[in-house]
Amino acid sequence: MVGPYGGITAAQMLQAVWLHPDRLGEPVALTVNFAAGLRDAPFVVEARPARTNRSTQHWTMALTQSGEDGASETMITATALTAARRVTWSATDAPMPAVPRPSDTERRPLPSRQVPWLERYDMRFIAGHIPQTWDGAEADSVTCLWMRDDPPRPLDFASLSALADVFFPRVWRRRAVMTPIGTVSMTVYFHAGAAELAACGDDFVLGLARAQSFFNGYFDQSAELWSEAGQLLATTHQIVYYKE
Amino acid sequence: MVGPYGGITAAQMLQAVWLHPDRLGEPVALTVNFAAGLRDAPFVVEARPARTNRSTQHWTMALTQSGEDGASETMITATALTAARRVTWSATDAPMPAVPRPSDTERRPLPSRQVPWLERYDMRFIAGHIPQTWDGAEADSVTCLWMRDDPPRPLDFASLSALADVFFPRVWRRRAVMTPIGTVSMTVYFHAGAAELAACGDDFVLGLARAQSFFNGYFDQSAELWSEAGQLLATTHQIVYYKE
């Protein structure tokens, strides 16, 4: 509710690593801290390899903008891990729930009058849509939806990072009170490589999100993202400020 | 399996923030990236407030040691959010499971011949103990246990951060193969304030952990930590390298 869509910022922080000439391997973990709302103005993202080992590389990133007095201000901090993966024994213990296909699910967008980024996603809700009436009725905090870029584009680490932040605020779902919110920190763990993401093409991604705690101004969110074929692509967690 | 217990390093990274004279409020989020195995040698932790707002403060931290050539090497990177919380509507959606009390649960420690830190915790397993035979038999990845510092000490943000890393590697539980592992990134979200932690005294904490994905060398872990009274104190997530 301050600045641009957090998901696009997360994607930009990761993309700075992805484009870095010294990058080793592919993203495994990303944490983005939203320290201040970005202004609609130029920004600089610096990605620095803090430590490069044989098969892993730890990154620190920062996004800065010029303040009113011209001084550089830190708006976003972030860290990431990239790694050259080897093929190992693998297993998924979070199976995709049995849900209707995207083509059998109605596209019913969120209200987007003042939030243009919502139009950049094709969202097809299966459960837990945004409350239709803001009457304070308590509900669960679960949302399940198919989602895809609009216009469609092939899935990659940047777009998957952005998708990880698509879910509307869990506290709105939980209690049907439209309190101001803002994500303060977000982590994405990638459970697929570039080849697996490329194989998804511009398919939909299934997202399932819920909160576990709302405590004195901050709630958490955990979510899983699966490919249409049912592969767990990423798990993601965030902590979000809420006003009341 | 390289360097000291990761939980104590996580606690030390947070403690550097906690002790900083410019700190605003209490910890809400902590992410620690294990870039290299610490040597049994002096280290320096630098904590820097990257951005201070009215009620929140974003921190970046780094732990360095002197390399063989005397140059400073980054071993750990970390970020944290501290905040001055206000009392708001609050709710917990992750209720503590119904389990026997600590006093009714047998203390059966992990094998600790070469891992002294295990003796610094009183662990009382309810479900998902470490495999007794390493026969490759697949199982679920769930562990539930009561845990407490040994000797007991009052709970605080540092000790809770350390407890968040107590769980033995999920991949050992999942497939009873003792493959080498190493946590590469760990996040803790705090759902209690200093007053709530202090009220726990030296009570046990219930931990419940499971993995969701094992993919080409990295698996995740998500866990919840509750007070004996059933309050959700923290949720925590990590991603862990495994060799095969």
Mind telling me the C-alpha Rg of chain A? 18 Å
Tally of DSSP β-strands of chain A: 12
Number of helices of chain A: 4
Shape of chain A: globular
Mean pLDDT of chain A: 95
**SSE string of chain A:** HEEEEEEEHHEHEEEE
pLDDT < 50 stretches of chain A: none
Largest interface: A-B, 64 and 64 residues
**What fold name stands as the CATH topology of chain A?**
Porin
Overview of the structural elements:
2 copies of one chain form a homodimer. By secondary structure, chain A is mainly β. Chain A has a single domain (6-85, 101-242), classed as Acyl-CoA thioesterase, double hotdog domain (Porin, Beta Barrel). Helices cover 13% and strands 40% of the residues of chain A. Chain A has helices at 6-18, 157-163, 170-175, 194-199, and strands spanning 26-34, 44-52, 56-66, 72-83, 91-92, 121-127, 143-149, 181-190, 205-210, 213-215, 218-227, 232-242. In chain A, strands 1, 2, 3, 4, 6, 7, 8, 9, 10, 11 and 12 form an 11-stranded antiparallel sheet that branches. In chain A, a hairpin with a 4-residue loop joins β11 (218-227) and β12 (232-242). In chain A, α1 packs antiparallel against α2. The longest helix of chain A is centred in the N-terminal third of the chain and has 13 residues, at 6-18. The first copy, chain A, is globular, with a radius of gyration of 18 Å. The mean pLDDT of chain A is 95. Chains A and B meet through β1, β3, β4, β5 and β8 of A and β1, β3, β4, β5 and β8 of B.
